[in-house]
């Protein structure tokens, strides 16, 4: 969580300084979901994160330097400078590269889970769906296929209240996604406070293990509030003050720190904070020193087997 | 499927029923429901699932019941399958088989030749066999290839072409056109059902079977025109919708000085495929219209 928060505070500053091009997305307030989902997975499991889930990458072994290289468009980054910001993945770490078109990754992860089931391998595929994606046909097709095929796929529903500027209430009649996924596709679903990282981890871990045990697809809805706008250009002025106030005191990192203090682990928490700040600074320095992509290499890799 | 456990099939009614055109008949009985998977009507979903399975090392082959339905999983094909290797290094070895073409009174939703939607898309390979040997050889090569391949099969050829199964080791290399018949007065550049039509010509024309529509075998086109100096592109896709424009662009840019006459496109008009026999017969390129077009080209 702290790696994601610290990384994103850094990229936010870099963006304002004009050192990051294009768009910038962050997951302020949703780090518990991203971290817990990543940590709930085991070796051999695969995941397709979206824009708010940087901590999932880190939990799977993607390094902050990898991520910085992508944000900075470096030639040796995960997308070789061909894509930016959160639009990346590291297949060698079991992380599928994010695709902007919402919903696309739902059937893709179902297909990965189908491969595991066909081969009898004890792995799961996990992906995230926000309220925005929930309006896309791909998601309905993917959930249906997951149910029909009974594959080990886990869907984490990121209910952060908005897709871009449009509140959930303007996108769907029933905003309880867990209820819809359970009632509509017969996929077991639980609904939890997405700012309580221990609860989120416990819930996602249980879902992952049920899927791994052959109980078919599973879902966990994590209720949060998107801390920033859709992207860095969006000041989120459309979010009503009452809604914002209802999330005061529910920062997932502050909540965990309070728990750690109560359990006498305050010193360890501070040590982690110092280590994270140092790690992020070192990763940024490494990425900034990396070479820019060479335009002469632009056409490399269009095909795996060029003709 | 016998030689590679990773190969499995996804599609509508391909299992016990054997597919709308019977292409997968017998496979369900031999390989079972785990490798011949009947899907719900969810093309975006099962093409996406094929991509996910390919991510995990499988070699899925998807059947679209009609090529017209390629509009449904279009996003998954051009957004996810086509761009993934370039932007991450992850190969997506999937084959999407799709029956295209008219002649069965299918009308606007079951007779299209939409291969042009995919021609020009970086990261995709687009294939369309015109012979039994290539139907086998290209399919084997496409399944073994590490890139996403759109594999168009002209549905009229399913029954019209008769022959025996080519030898097991037959492979038709992707990206290579074939001179189906040598000739000297002009070149008919075509593919799919156009090959058979062009081979019926009595003129001294070369017939170049493109076989792979994208990436285009530019050298083969230019080599042939270098010998014949006249070009006619024959396609069943609507005039402005297919590979013909790419061939003409190539000839204009790199073959201009080879040409003795303006290149000709013989293709249906820019409309959807009509249903009524009188309309569809007039719409599709026919032997006598092709012969007349060749006469005009030779007489220029």
3D architecture notes:
The complex is a heterodimer of chains A (307) and B (300). With 307 residues, chain A is α/β, with parallel strands linked by helices. Chain A has a domain at 2-6 and 24-55 and 102-272: Rossmann fold, CATH 3.40.50. Chain A is 43% helix and 10% strand. In chain A, the strands form 2 sheets. A 5-stranded parallel β-sheet of chain A has the order 1-2-3-7-6, with helices on both faces. Chain A has a two-stranded antiparallel sheet with strand order 4-5. In chain A, helix 1 (2-16) packs across helix 11 (266-288), helix 4 packs across helix 11 (266-288) and helix 5 packs parallel to helix 6 (137-149). Chain B folds into 2 domains: 7-160, Rossmann fold, CATH 3.40.50; 178-298, Rossmann fold. Chain B contains 10 helices and 12 strands. Chain B has helices at residues 27-31, 43-55, 74-88, 132-144, 157-160, 193-199, 218-228, 244-254, 277-283, 287-298; strands at residues 7-11, 36-38, 59-63, 95-100, 125-127, 149-154, 178-181, 186-190, 205-209, 212-214, 231-234, 264-266. Chain B has a 7-stranded mixed β-sheet with strand order 2-1-3-4-6-5-10, sandwiched between helices. Chain B has a 5-stranded mixed β-sheet with strand order 7-9-8-11-12, sandwiched between helices. The longest helix of chain B is centred in the first third of the chain and has 15 residues, at 74-88. Chain A binds chain B through residues 46, 78-80, 82-83, 87-91, 96-97, 99, 101, 104, 106-116, 118, 125, 137-138, 141-142, 144-145, 148-149, 301-305, 307, and chain B through 8, 34, 37, 39-40, 42, 44-58, 60, 75-76, 79-80, 83-93, 122-123, 125, 145-147, 174-175, 212, 215.
